[in-house]
Predict the 3D structure of the following.
Amino acid sequence: MNTHKHFDKKDKNYRRWWNITDRFGFSMEFSYNSTSYHINLINFSDDEGEWGFSMAIRPIAFYFHVKVPRALCLKESRELCASVHGGGLWWSLWGSPWCDYPKPYGKWRDGNFNFVDFFLGKSTCTRTTLEERDVLIPMPEKSYKATVKMVEFKWTRPRWFAKMVTRADIKVPEGIPHEGKGTCAHNCGVDATYGMTTGKCHSIPKAVGILVGHCLSDRVKYGGWSDWEWRKPREKMTVNKSAAYGMKCVEDKKVGIINPNAETA
């Protein structure tokens, strides 16, 4: 039997695993930073057999899982759970834990009831454009043409007060370049930001500043910060050669797409 443990100070989680054999073992997790309310009994039967139980009452949460031979599991994965979130009660009475729709059984077995909607009425959202203007986004290498809309979002309920938030919707047709995340074949090389919707914002100058800060932050995070001119042509983009599908891929420099039939170096 081998054991190991982990303590995450940031998320305030303590985890410990006991592996008795490859087919049998159990794990436990304790958290004192939870934001949920739920109780859950679940059985996973798809790959390795596993039974689990969890319970959470904010801020305390407890999880316990037992890995067992496949023969000790049900034919299909099932869960028995109840949780409270989003202003409602959600339940699953021995239903599938996966998000497969439509469900082969009635809503009474897998559904929800929203108390906020029941007592206050359903929420509706309306958008009102307050101002629209063509602007230039100042970046170190040059300025990019963009359109900024100041939009007021208003949420109302029949039996409650309205909530209003003003945001900026920014569109940059040319795109502001930066390096891609580099986590998969499709996001290697040069990427670009073509627009964004800000959080709470009450002026166009502030919206422009938010976009500039976002793009510069991406350049720092993903590389390319020292390349002020940003003159990297698309044909020089590199592609992860151990890409999806398990085949050797290189980039077709003429059209900028992945060509699986091209010769590799």
User: Anything to note?
Assistant: The mean pLDDT is 80. The CA atoms of residues 183 and 240 lie 9 Å apart. The longest strand covers residues 160-179.
